[in-house]
Amino acid sequence: MTQDYQDGNALAGPLAELFTVDVTAATGRCVSCGHTGRVADLRVYAQAPGWVARCPGCEHVMLRLVRSPDAAWLDLQGTLSLRVPLPPA
Amino acid sequence: MGIVSPGFRRRRRDDDVELPPGQYLTQDFPVLSAGPTPNIPLDRWQFTISSEIGQEYQWTWDELLELPAEEPTVDIHCVTKWSKLGTTWRGVSLDLLMEEVETTADYALVHCYGGYTTNLPLEDLLDGKAWVVYEYEGSELAPQHGGPARLLVPHLYFWKSAKWVRGIQLQEFDEPGFWESVGYHNYGDPWREERYAGD
Amino acid sequence: MNARLEWRVAKLSGVHHETATARTLQLDVPGWPGHLPGQHVDVRLTDEDGYSTQRSYSLAAPADGDRIELTVQRVKDGEVSEYLTDTFSVGDPVELRGPVGGWFVWHPSRTAPVLLVAGGSGIVPLMAMVRARRQARSRAPFRLLYSVRSPSDQFYASELRRLARDDGGLDVATLYTRSVPTGVMRPPRRIGVADLEMYGWPPQFEPTCFVCGPTGFVEKVANSLVGLGHDPRRIRTERFGPTGG
User: Fold this and answer.
1) Is C106 inside any structural domain?
2) C53 contacts on B by Cβ (under 8 Å)
3) Is residue C2's pLDDT more than 70?
4) Does C46 lie at the interface with B, CB-CB under 8 angstroms?
5) What is the pLDDT of residues C88-130, one digit of tens each?
6) Residue C239 is nearest to which of A6, A22, A24, comparing CB atoms?
7) Where does the Oxidoreductase molybdopterin-binding domain lie (chain B) (predicted)?
8) Which of C1, C51, C100 is most worth mutating to test chain A (most A CB atoms within 10 A of its CB)?
């Protein structure tokens, strides 16, 4: 098996451009297989025109992020839900 | 754009050739991938062109290799800004594969082993502009570069030259592929620097 | 609460060599907001033609005011790491943004036992935790397993020896994979379940486990820890992928 991926920790910087919460600590659920785990544990393929984060259970694409000079595109259609930990209200 | 880092030079360069705007020259062959490299046994490999009315035209690996091959030498341009000149490939022209296909479709959606897709107008696959290639520089195409076979459409950014190609769906409507649906340009002409949607 | 991230211009204020191919960079970052051990920064390099590329590097130590430290391992054909280890000079500016990453972090207020497992340059964020523990005078019991090729590839060797001697509650085991210094009984080999059992914490102690290194190393260690009975929810991992250059 080739290990040509990083993990979701690598998304912390790119996603922090968009969100003020740390999305890598959030728990995501895969549309394809139902696997539930931290965004930090996704398999991230960054040697590509964008960031592609795949489910560690079934390799389904859970998140895609493309950054152009003046915009970011975020696709989460592979993620059924995200649970974001927050400080008590 | 950021500040210039003193003394930082990208690796290797050659300023004498004309490149599409914003591109730089590379001698090596960077590997880009959006997922794991699929393992495709040749006895199970198949290439399928599906017409807009659902008619399918299929080739096995052996059938593909029996077709007359061409050896295009072309320049390739990746949207991540590297260009590589004079690359030589061996494979079958899409004109040949499309010869028997009855269609009035205007668009093609390319499908790959591993799930990747990319879209382009059908006319960009015809008239000697595209191939299904299985050799690179005289050797069989390595898996990390798209082997056993990849699409080669060198006049567009290289993400259109889909690795691990499995088939082409002909359609009357245009459907954005993997990168085209998340911010990349729908057509991707490097000479007009069509990198992102809206460029 | 974090603000949205922006690129800042840092200046290299000092360097020192860790090994023949790795060095620690001290950077002054005006307005640095502070960080937790385990967090990282993105570094961006740009050349005269506008070609630009970025990489992530772990912060190696707690911040000292506006001063931060990164330790960078030179990677073969890695254009960013080669620049940062060879060309980048004191006084030069560089763009970075951070701190980022809220998952692979240790909070110095935590008192639970901690198991750190480092493979090669994966020691960097774990060293930040060891240093933060000392700075906070934390009594949290720490065990560090550091898998490294040979003595000459070790980062922070003398500091780790000193900390292990002086800091109550910190144990350090260095596990060599290629060649060992004289006097070390364990033959050179890759880290195994037996090492994790001998030098780690038993799962009943419920340690928080931080594993950092190359992808294959991390997968193997994390699987071994689960096999030993550690709760996967207490195992946090950080993998170096192909873009480590």
Assistant:
1) no
2) 10
3) no
4) yes
5) 999 999 999 999 998 999 999 999 999 999 999 999 999 999 9
6) A6
7) 35-179
8) C100
pLDDT of residue B113: 96
User: Is residue C83 over pLDDT 90?
Assistant: yes
User: What CATH class has B24-28+43-192?
Assistant: alpha beta
How many other CB atoms are there within 10 angstroms of residue C178's CB atom?
12
Mean pLDDT for chain C overall: 93
C76 and C135 in a common domain: no
Instruction: Locate the domains of chain B by residue range.
Output: 24-28+43-192
The answer to whether the CB atoms of A16 and C5 lie below 8 A apart is yes
- Alpha carbons A61 and A39: distance in angstroms, whole number: 12
Inter-chain residue contact C83 with B8, CB threshold 8 Å: yes
Burial B101-128 (b: 16+ CB within 10 A, else e): bebebebbbbbbbbebbbbbebebbeee
Residues of A whose CB is below 8 A from C223: none
Phi and psi of C125, rounded to 5°? -70, -25
pLDDT (mean) for C9-27: 96
**Domains of chain C: total:** 2
Give domain limits for chain A: 6-83
State the complex-level ipTM: 0.91
Pair (C130, C224) in one structural domain: yes
Would you call A68 and B183 a contact, using CB atoms and an 8 Å cutoff?
A: yes
Residue B10 and residue C51: Cβ atoms within 8 Å?
A: yes
Q: Would you give the end-to-end CA distance of chain C in angstroms?
A: 31
Same domain, C228 and C122: yes
Q: Which residues fall within 8 angstroms of residue B62, CB to CB, at 6 or more apart? A: none
Does A40 contact C103 at a Cβ distance shorter than 8 Å?
Answer: yes
Backbone angles phi and psi of B36, in degrees to 5: -65, 150
B35 vs A: CB within 8 A: yes
